[in-house]
């Protein structure tokens, strides 16, 4: 499957990757707020919104079947569920 990936003409983004990006962005936002850097914190929110506007038409849904197939990979490869789903 990964060798086929290099033949993809246009990128796609899984919904689970967007959830992970949003979680990471929230973490960085809170870190910067706690450091008193409100401007930088707000920059993370702007970044997330910009990313979402740029990938809006490239999002692919994740099905329960995808998650079921990813669970064994998660343990075999010692990765999180999002990474495993993206490998399915």
**Assembly context of the chains:** single chain
Classify the helix fraction into a percent range.
over 70%
Number of helices: 5
* Topology as a string of helices (H) and strands (E): HEHHEHH
Low-confidence stretches: none
Global morphology: globular
Largest sheet: 2 strands, parallel
What would you report as the Rg, rounded to the nearest angstrom?
16 Å
Largest sheet strand order: 1-2
Number of strands: 2
Strand residues, percent: under 5%
Give the termini distance in whole angstroms: 8 Å
Number of domains: 1
Structural class: mainly alpha
Molecular structure report:
The protein has 88 residues and is mainly alpha-helical. It has one domain (2-87). Helix content is 70%, strand content 5%. The chain contains five helices and two strands; from the N terminus they run αβααβαα. The chain has a two-stranded parallel sheet. The model has no long low-confidence stretch (mean pLDDT 89).
Short précis:
The chain has 88 residues and is mainly α.
Fold blueprint:
Layout: H1 2-5, E1 13-14, H2 15-34, H3 38-55, E2 59-60, H4 64-76, H5 81-87
């Amino acid at each position: 499957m990964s060798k086929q990936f290099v033949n993809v003409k246009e990128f796609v983004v899984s919904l689970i990757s967007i959830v992970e990006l949003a979680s990471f962005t929230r973490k960085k936002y809170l870190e910067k707020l706690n450091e008193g850097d409100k401007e930088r914190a707000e920059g993370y929110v702007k970044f997330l919104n910009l990313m979402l506007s740029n990938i809006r038409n490239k999002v692919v849904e994740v099905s329960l079947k995808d998650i079921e197939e990813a669970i064994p990979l998660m343990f075999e490869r010692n990765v999180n569920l999002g990474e495993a789903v993206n490998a399915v």
